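Question (not urgent): is this output format expected?
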Amino acid sequence: MINKSLSYLFCVLFYTLSYSQNTQNVTLKIIDSKSKKEIPYAHVSIGKKHAYAKSNGKVFLSNIPFGSKEVVVTHVGYTTLNKSISIPTKEIIILALTLNNATLSEVVISKKSRKKLSKVSAITSKVNNNYLEKNRDNSLMQTLRDIPGVNAITIGSGQSKPTIRGLGFNRVVVVENGIKHEAQQWGADHGLEIDQYNVEDIEVIKGASSLLYGSDAISGVINLKNNSIPNINSFSGELNLTNRSNNDFYGISVGIKQRYNHWFYKARITHEDYGDFKVPTTKINYDNYIFNLHKNYLRNTAGYNHNIGFSLGYVHHNITSITTFSNINAKNGFFANAHGLEVRTSRINYDESNRDIDLPFHKVNHFKITNNTNISFENNSLDIELGYQKNHREEHSEPVPHGYMPAPDHSMERLFEKSTYTLNIKDQISYFQNHNITTGINLEYQDNNISGWGFLIPAYNRLTVGAFVYDQVKLNKNLYVDGGIRYDYGTLKTQPYYEWFYSPVIDQNGNTTQQKLQRAEERNLNFSNFSASAGISYIKENTSYKINIGKSFRIPLANELASDGVNYHMYRYEEGSLDLDPESSYQIDAEFKTNFNKVDFQLTPFVNYFDNYIYLSPSSEYYQTLQKYQYQQSEVFRYGGEILAHYRPTNSITLSGSLEYVKAKQLSGRKKNFTLPFSPPLTGVLSLEYTLKPWSYFNDINLFASGRFASDQNEIVPPEKTTEGYSLFSLGLRTNVLAFSKINPLKIQGKINNLFNRKAFDHTSFYRLIEVPQPGRNFSITLIQTF
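Got this back:
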């Protein structure tokens, strides 16, 4: 079956290259809308074909298919032009650009991409660079928190991982430049190794996305991009300086990019350093033990991040190739009292300094190299994506004895080392009229190794292969239908593991012997599954409707299949099951979006059913005083959605509001009628922005305030605790200062989070189980200078 499917797909991929259709070579001329003078070196694109205007403003594009085509023209200092043209034509097409003298107001869904995104039935939002600059927080996922439906599982102040509509871990795929980011995302205490300053724009896809992205995209996708092409013969850069008061954070990020004729490069260096963060309480009650906090500092939560990235690209005629290197280094402390109660007898003076990183801590290095190559042919466009990643993560704890385990002679409790090799091939076919067909193949191989004195999951190898066909059909200028099918095959091989110390074992005759217990065995597991989706989009001038039905799946992880050890971060014994089946999810997503007069409104409901959701459930068994938690499967039904609205009563005032809600219920298993872990409460965000008139050297002066409101979360899964609702407020000011350059003003932003220093608990926080509240009042200031 697999061989036949792959053979058919390869035929579709390459057979279409031999076809042709009616095409025409097109000449365009780019001019200034006021002066009518030619604009040289403007970037012009029609579909996958692009070129740069010569010194006379003219640009030549070959083999453009007949029909109505959208042309996009960009140039530094000018507003991007999107215009429909009709092919064939006998004349030179003249396009006029308008000078952009002001910074555009913040939008989450950019106007440039809104029309393109509305044609697909997937619920997709585009986050632009303006949003990232204005909302940047301690980590990338915390920066995205105000997008309805997106949340973050926070791990201290510098680490977090994404959730979409209450689902996280390996149910959300993070893609960077087409390559799935692979680290240790299965762990609740493992963050995301991404330099948020090195991200240019983001697409957030909510809902079943396995069709295009494979296993794990069962809840959605965070698609990160930083591979835009600079203008020809250009050089630019950016300096970003940030300081935050709560955890004495300081960060600096410098990026430059330059393009010659065909070659270009980009480079960025980021350094962040921070101390323990403060919480609005002086005491924490964990397991009936009171921990006093010195000057409100959550001891041992300091850390640092050192990041470097470099891209080298080549553009010529119908070929674009970009190779990107990145290296992320981070070291973060864990709140000492979150790692068990042995800290009561520790000799470490955690309160000596708020910037030192004592035990327990983790450090991680993530190296990544990717290549994205696009080759445009007459009737199709071929994308080839290659990736190699190596994730090296160490967890260090005090070497103290546990149960029968003697005291280790070093602090490295666990080492996880993962090497991932990725190949994606995608062919977008435009031969057939009103059809946009995409076929693709995805291959990924993982080599996972372990070390350290604390065992949790075994070493393993994993191979996944997938192939898909997707088609978008234009029925008329307002109505689009899309759908596709995908087949995936995966294999996982676990390695045997024996404890490094001896434990007493009683045989059937009552005799006691000392043995090294086996915690994992060698097993070969195979999985396969189909995914599919179908949807419809109806677009009118100011209103659009979408509905998408999708089936996704997820291959079980090594920790779910073969874990058999103590997780001291959660203070429990975790046990996997080799009998788990792949998760299957069936979901209906819808979207209604409209704008009228001064109001934009968006409604995105969903319904979701799992026939075999995998979860970790407490059992009645114990191991050396620690309760055993075992991975089980059950039916789960979920529903909810998001509401987003913008109101502009005047040109200077913008009011925004959003609301998100998720309801989940287990229909079978040990936790029948319970919800799911980390289920977010009903949450709303209200914001106000007021634009002042320019004053002296200050332009684009914006005052803004927002409130985040969460209801009580009483629907929990033990050992979770109920969480009281909260309301947190922020206040800020941002402006541009014509200090060094009128073309590139200095951007300044000051912001106060948790304005009233309220004690609030985030139900999705890693530290929620041990009664750690959200950070207290924080003042931040950011300076951004482009050049």
